[in-house]
Amino acid sequence: MKKPKVYRKRYIPDEIVDITGDELIFRNEELLITKWKPIKKRDDISKGISYTFLKEGYKISRFFGPTGEFIYWYCDIIDVKYYKEEDKYILIDLLLDVKIMPDGKVEILDADELSVAIRENIVTKREASMSLSILDKILKMIYSGNFPPEICLQYT
User: Fold this and answer.
1) I need a labelling partner for 98 at 20 to 30 A (CA). Which of 3, 72, 79, 111 fits?
2) What is the pTM of this model?
3) CATH superfamily to which 5-153 belongs
4) Burial class of residue 63 in the structure, from the number of CB atoms within 10 Å of its CB (0-12 exposed, 13-18 middle, 19+ buried)
């Protein structure tokens, strides 16, 4: 399986991080599955596995604590740009995130950042609208009992 270049682009803070070093587990036109360690050392998270749904606009990650125990699900809302000739993905963070605890508690994160990004023209109207639409899709999946997708329970 050929390993693509993968970059995470954030608007707040404005940065692009090369995450190509993450371990590639699976890849097709719709899904990337990677295992990773935190970019910056953390006491609360030792590792994770991410399922990037390339056509759906979100990345669902399983976060594991210091002793390898599952601690929560984390959904990044993203816009994916793929450059075939370079075999390169840019995962653009659209600011809103959803955290789901093992007890089912749901937290919507970074709405304040999206508000700032809209007000200061950091994101386009299309990106803001896309972020809200994908948030709605994720919440409907959670509240209907269809979260996580079955594939996200594989490759532990």
Assistant:
1) 3
2) 0.95
3) FomD-like (2.40.380.10)
4) buried
